[in-house]
Amino acid sequence: MTFDLFADDTPQGRETLGPSAVLLRGHALPQAESWLALLEQIEARSPFRHMYTPGGYRMSAAMTCCGELGWITDRRGYRYSATDPLTGQPWPPMPDAWRALAGEAAQQAGFQGFEPDACLINRYVPGAKMSLHQDKDERDHSWPVVSVSLGLPAVFQFGGLQRTDKTQRVPLFHGDVLVWGGADRLRFHGILPLAEGEHPRFGAQRINLTFRKAG
Question: For 203, what's the count of Cα atoms within 13 Å in the CB-facing half-sphere?
Answer without folding.
Answer: 5
